[in-house]
């Protein structure tokens, strides 16, 4: 949705002023903004979320569910972070997520995929074949790998990850 700016005098003929869709008052400013097929005071066209002015000519505004939103808030509220690597469902952008090496997870999905152990801050976890494993299951697997004659796939990385640094939030404020 693009915003255009027009001299108010040219709209509606001689002296007739447009009503602002925001405050419902007549627009007597020299310029008014046109967006969403309505007219606005420069000060009235603002983001419903962060109150930033959207009246920059040529800037883009977004509408959803009767909200006027700036691009940042729109993406925060209605964009998506990606798809959970555990359950493959979409993760809304406003949700807290776990990020590990380019993968994102719902917080509730971030658990050992072998025994469903949930991790706490400071716990060690391992990524093995793109699966999250707790320390115990990882060692189990390593033992199996080293005792069997077939060699473990080279994608099993030995270094552990600490959950502390991996917790991140996609919530901006
Ligand atoms: Zn107004
Ligand atoms: Zn905003
Ligand atoms: Zn999930
Ligand atoms: Zn486990």
TrEMBL record:
Which Pfam family would be a valid example here?
Answer: LIM
Sorted alphabetically, the Gene Ontology cellular component annotations on this record are:
nucleus
SUPFAM superfamilies registered for this protein in UniProt: Glucocorticoid receptor-like (DNA-binding domain)
Keyword Zinc on this protein?
Answer: yes
List, in alphabetical order, the GO biological process terms annotated in this UniProt record.
positive regulation of transcription by RNA polymerase II
For this UniProt record, the keywords arranged alphabetically read as follows: LIM domain, Metal-binding, Repeat, Zinc
Identify the residues that the record assigns to the LIM zinc-binding domain, covering every copy: 18-80, 82-144
InterPro entries, from UniProt?
LMO_RBTN_TF, Znf_LIM
Determine if Repeat is one of this entry's keywords.
yes
Q: What is this protein called?
A: LIM zinc-binding domain-containing protein
Q: Name one GO molecular function term.
A: transcription coactivator activity
């Amino acid at each position: 949705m693009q915003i255009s700016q027009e001299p108010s005098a040219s709209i509606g003929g001689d002296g007739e002023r447009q009503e602002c869709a925001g405050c419902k008052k007549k627009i007597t400013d020299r310029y008014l903004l046109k967006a969403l097929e309505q007219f606005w005071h420069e000060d009235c066209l603002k983001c419903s979320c962060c109150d930033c002015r959207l009246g920059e000519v040529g800037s883009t505004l977004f509408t959803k569910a009767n909200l006027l939103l700036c691009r940042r808030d729109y993406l925060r509220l209605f964009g998506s972070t990606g798809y959970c690597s555990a359950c493959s469902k979409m993760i809304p952008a406003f949700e807290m997520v776990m990020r590990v090496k380019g993968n994102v997870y719902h917080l509730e999905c971030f658990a050992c995929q072998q025994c469903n152990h949930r991790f706490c801050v400071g716990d060690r976890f391992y990524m093995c074949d793109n699966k999250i494993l707790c320390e115990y299951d990882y060692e189990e697997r390593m033992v199996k790998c080293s005792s069997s004659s077939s060699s473990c796939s080279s994608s099993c990385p030995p270094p552990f990850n600490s959950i502390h640094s991996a917790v991140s939030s996609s919530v901006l404020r």
